[in-house]
Amino acid sequence: MTDHRITFESLLTPGTSADHLWSTLPRELADLFRPRVAEAATDVFQEITRAIPVYDQPSLGRGVAHGVQQAIQQFVDRLADPEAPQEDRKALFRELGRRELMDGRNLDVLQSAYRIGARVAWRRISRTAERANVPINTLCLLAEAIFVYIDELSALSIEGYATAQAREAGSLERRRRRLLKLILAQPPSTMVAITTAAAAARWVVPSHVCAVALEPLSDGRRAPALFGNFLVDLESNAPCLIVSEADERHLAALSANDSRRRRCGRWPNCRRRSGAGCRRHCWRG
Question: According to the model, what pLDDT value does residue 276 have?
């Protein structure tokens, strides 16, 4: 998966660690910024929803507002105590990444929100710091801390997104294997059971399907990728696949190539027929 983390050119001396950065900042900054957390969170949320309208929906807005509030609060808490445990706080930003996947968005939208949040937060923080006569070198370190912090949040959301994506892929694969077994079951499964399982497996039910028995590979080689509306089971003692009528051309292409045929298994001569007697080879929906 593409790495979407936000990166910034460091203001620190090369080799300086983020831990050292946090320990360098004066603890008094937390007392300076804490009374303004709520105002800063409101400004950040308003700017995010103005620039990204999808986050202004009631179903999403509450979660985004909570995430903004917690991000700013945790930043200030970290200024006060850089050594405080962070693991419990990380869960929220992993969850934000997971929600992006569940809602069908890629990470670019969330990363844009992080960039906007960093810009607005820095604008407010710098004004407050200047009014309090915070030295310019401390301001530079503070800016660096904001960008490092946003990069950390970005990485956590990427982790949450990737973890959810892997789980979803595994779950989808299991649902597709279950669907394949339903189609090949004896006695035959009902069409209601098949269509219900197909919807859960995100598989479009075709008018005809063909079942293909496969020979397990004995030389350790991997089977080539199969494209199209395939259901595949390579883990059972009787590996097989099911292909829709529209995708039988892919079988023909593989059969025409001897080396691929050896890798993928035997492709029986399968004709579309009706009747329970040929159900284990062909199926009509």
Answer: 31
Domain that holds residue 266: 206-284
Q: CB neighbours of 153 closer than 8 A, spacing ≥ 6?
A: 71, 93, 114
d(CA 86, CA 15): 23
Q: Are 89 and 83 in contact (CB under 8 A)?
A: no
pLDDT number for residue 267: 31
For residue 193, is it within any domain?
no
At residue 159, the 3 state secondary structure works out as helix
List b or e across 112-145, with b for residues whose CB sees 16 or more CB atoms inside 10 angstroms: ebbebbbebbbebbeebbeeeebeeeeeebbbbb
H/E run at residue 108: helix 107-131
Point out the residues of the chain with pLDDT beneath 50.
2-15, 257-285
Same-domain pairing of 168 and 36? yes
Q: Does residue 56 sit within a domain? A: yes
Q: What is the C-alpha separation between 201 and 196, in angstroms, rounded?
A: 9
Q: Is 168 helix (H, G, I), strand (E, B) or coil?
A: helix
Q: In the chain, helix, strand, coil percent, each to 5?
A: 65, 5, 30
Q: Structural domain tally of the chain?
A: 2
- Element (H or E) spanning 183, and its range? helix 136-184
DSSP-derived pairing of the beta strands 240-244 and 282-284:
unpaired
Quote the pLDDT of residue 151: 92
Which one-letter amino acid corresponds to residue 196?
T
pTM: predicted TM-score of the whole model, two decimal places = 0.62
Please report where in the chains the tokens 């079951």 appear, as a residue: 185
Q: Which residues make Cβ contacts (< 8 Å) with residue 35, sequence separation at least 6?
A: none
Residue environment code for 158-170, b if the CB has 16+ CB neighbours within 10 A, otherwise e: bebbbebeeeeee
